[in-house]
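re: ur question from earlier - yeah i can do the single chain one, its not a big deal. heres the input i used so u can compare w yours
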Amino acid sequence: MLQLARFPSSFAGRLSGALTLDQCPWSFYDLNLSPSTSNAIKYNQRVTPPRILLLYAAAGAGHRRAAEAVADQLRSRGATVALFDTIRYTHPIFRAVYIGGGLNLIIRLPRLYGLAYRLSDRSSIERVLRGPRQRTQQLSARSLLRAIQNFNPEALICTHFLPAELCAGWRRSNQLSAPVYTVITDFEPHRMWQHLGTDGYCVATDEAAARLVSDGIDRSMIHVTGIPIRSEFASLPDRLTARNRLQIEPDRSLLVVIGGGLGVGGIDRVARLLIQQPIESQVAIITGRNRSLRRRLRSTSPDWIVRGFVENMPDWLAAADVVISKAGGLAAAELLAAGAPTIIPRGLSGHESNNARYMIAHASALMADSPQQAVGRAVNLLQDHALQNKMRVASLRFSKPNAAEEVAEIVLRGLVSSLRAPKGRSNLLIDYETPALHPQDVPQSGASVASSA
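and the output i got, formated as tokens:
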């Protein structure tokens, strides 16, 4: 018998006889079998879909949204998928420093954060920092390694640099055997994303791929997919339909102000200026998970539409005439996919500066040096329909709304390629030997485990 793979099982029953390729439980149709190969796959024992684990870190909402977008595509292709928040598996002291200290540095001392970001992207400095950083992270994340080993995935997908570095290190030390794919959720691949032990990189642009090659990464490991976003961005409603769904006035222009999942990025300063300089357009402000900011803005003006964290962002961007937004990687990818004319206030630095530069270089956004200038440019852009149209066309030209689908296909194709039969074989025989992984074996604390329903 030709043994091609051992799949862990959670639910599959015994199959008998032969199935044609289009009846297979997951993407065996990607095998690209030669004409001489039979169109039958014989199962001698139980067969289950691949188990794929996605790891993100709850440092903002973007990394989680990217993981969820890829997870949705994998589930639609029959994979068994789980999502782990890396931060929840770390030591409490590490968690407090990583999230609290890092976020405070970004918000309160953006220039210092920008300097640290630039310096740590230099190879000479990164070489010094890498060893102590990796040892600290691995000591603080032992429970994450145990959780991954218990889940026993066939592939790991990381949408944040923390799990990417951890998993690459465990891969090098043979504590993990599954291939590790890193999905870089910014337009510039900082060195913190790059680690020996990674099997594949998914990047936003050709420029990002070129940067990785210049840093010494084999081009065959790099896939230009775009940044994964929700599938709804590939088929957005027209403006009138979106406004009807949102129950806002269809005939008045709409300015949408977005502060990201954490509600940062100078929203409060922009709001104060909008009070001082009222505009005729409708104003919608999305504050993310910043509840105190949301309550404060709701009491500021009864005419504003104030929302917290929203699940219908595709509708808001489709409905908008102009957007004022920070430039997180996911936010930038969504804005491009929606063709939303965007004003980016200069404030946060580091990775967001690089994302903003990409959008500005491709004529899809305008930079504002201050909240005052952001509001002024938004007012002018609301009246300049020709420039709005030009920015929409530019955004759509460089958008990649199907990035999550591409990432899912790359990972599944990588798994299938390891199962490809040698030439001359007429049948593919799958040997099932790994013991079943029961629900009680799957770590529950801190993990969001999704079935493939």
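The first strand starts at residue 18 and ends at 20. not sure if urs matches, ping me
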